[in-house]
Design a protein that fits this description.
Length: about 425
């Protein structure tokens, strides 16, 4: 009698394990050491391979973000005005174990599977984890290796599958539906996403336009041929002595100038003063280029320096404004051109630069204008990353991994590698 109860309890437990996926995700591709725990129903408990269309059509309950810990190296790199790869990898080595431990502790998996009063030991933190996911590239080799080797060791220690994830794919998944635990309830971070959609990924290392046909199916339409958009923001900030990372600072100064323009008519005429080039804006492709724009800013700064001394605060504000307008114009023009050609159901804006208020506002306005001009069936949605998920984080890596797992994919630490130049398609 007692024996049969134990067998029943064990089978319930195994059944439960089959139904639940709990992913420990790790991201260290650049200068953020990040770990997260994601859980979701195992829609594919029979471990069969499904094509991505089936994933989309089956009514998947969205995965839940149980923890999302990020340790930023910003202060460290601010001293040098940019990421020094060697310094970044050393900082990852110091932070990785505390960050992974915190992500596991916050997810409270081991407490959930134990009697409440029983004290949870450090060694039990991995209990309940069914998969380990990690960024395999693109990124800085020394940085990628730290997260990758940690993930590999953890997968080995528990005989768990190791799922390698492309960093750009992670950024795209930062805007896919996920639930997050708020203080009292579980709430949806971003609304459901319809396919096909078009992803504009803009970060410090990447700028690309990707057509996402369905879950896990990508076609790169274009990318930067030189600097990334975020890199251009950072370099402009450096030229103007605004500190690192430059994106938020450039954006802040640009907003000040924009607000002045709105409030004082006299400043309006000055807007015509500086107009930077919009590289490749009229080229009939979906590639980007930001190095010429950065050089135009440098030329303007040198011109001001030749005439007087360093640029004044208001001159800096105007330069930031003109630069941001040019960058946003190119990014949104090319994205909308791709939208007109491929007719996606929505546009995803992802990556660190997706935090830029002006870019969000302009893309939204252009989508609304487009929607007002097209037939109902062509109208598009606008998808943004969940709160705090524009920049590098591990929750986005775990979300992408979740869809790979329910598509029936697995991964073995023995034959998984990093690739600093890993491409999405
Ligand atoms: O995605 P991310 O965290 O790292 C990479 O994968 O590169 O992106 C970081 C980039 C940096 O270049 C930073 O300056 C930029 O995103 N960024 C911004 C803003 N916030 C971050 N750029 C413009 N406006 C912002 N508000
Ligand atoms: Zn990134």
């Amino acid at each position: 009698m007692f024996g049969s109860w134990i067998i029943w309890a064990l089978s319930v437990n195994i059944d439960q394990m089959k139904k639940e996926i709990k992913i420990l995700a790790i991201e260290t591709s650049c200068d953020e050491t990040a770990a997260a725990v994601i859980c979701g129903a195992n829609e594919n408990s029979k471990s069969e391979c499904r094509n991505p269309k089936q994933i989309q059509n089956s009514n998947i309950q969205c995965p839940k973000i149980l923890s999302n810990i990020i340790s930023s190296q910003v202060d460290l790199h601010a001293k040098t005005g940019g990421v020094v790869p060697e310094v970044a990898s050393r900082a990852h080595v110091e932070a990785i174990i505390p960050v992974v431990t915190e992500a596991l502790q916050q997810a409270k998996l081991s407490q959930k599977s134990k009697v409440k009063s029983q004290k949870c030991k450090e060694g039990d933190l991995l209990e309940g984890i069914t998969h380990v996911a990690v960024t395999a590239g693109p990124g800085l080799v020394g940085s990628l290796l730290v997260g990758f080797n940690t993930a590999k060791a953890l997968a080995y220690s528990r005989n768990l599958p190791l799922i390698p994830i492309n960093h750009i794919e992670g950024h795209i998944y930062s805007a896919m539906p996920a639930r997050a635990e708020s203080q009292k309830s579980v709430k949806l971070r971003v609304p459901g996403v319809e396919f096909p959609n078009l992803a504009l990924t803009v970060s410090g290392g990447h700028t690309s336009l990707t057509l996402v046909g369905e879950h896990l199916k990508y076609k790169t339409l274009g990318q930067t041929i030189d600097d990334a958009a975020g890199e251009a923001f950072d370099k402009v900030a450096k030229l103007l002595d605004l500190g690192y990372p430059g994106g938020p600072e450039v954006s802040k100064l640009a907003s000040k100038f924009r607000n002045k323009v709105k409030s004082q008519k006299s400043v309006k005429s000055k807007v015509q003063g500086i107009k930077f080039p919009r590289p490749l804006i009229n080229k009939p492709n979906f590639n980007f280029s930001f190095s010429g724009l950065k050089t135009a800013v440098l030329t303007e700064v040198l011109r001001l320096k030749a005439n007087s001394s360093n640029p004044t605060v208001s001159q800096k504000e105007e330069i930031c404004f003109a630069f941001e307008e040019a960058a946003v114009d190119v990014l949104t023009t090319k994205t909308m051109r791709a939208a007109r050609e491929f007719r996606p159901k929505g546009i995803i804006l992802a990556g660190g630069v997706a935090a830029n208020g002006r870019l969000r506002e302009e893309l939204k306005a252009r989508i609304e204008k487009y929607n007002s001009e097209v037939e109902e069936k062509y109208k598009m949605n606008f998808y943004l990353p969940g709160p705090g998920m524009s920049g590098d984080n591990a929750a986005m890596i775990g979300l992408a991994a979740y869809y790979h797992i329910i598509a029936g994919e697995s991964g073995d630490w023995r034959d998984t590698r990093i690739d600093a130049n890993l491409s999405l398609v």
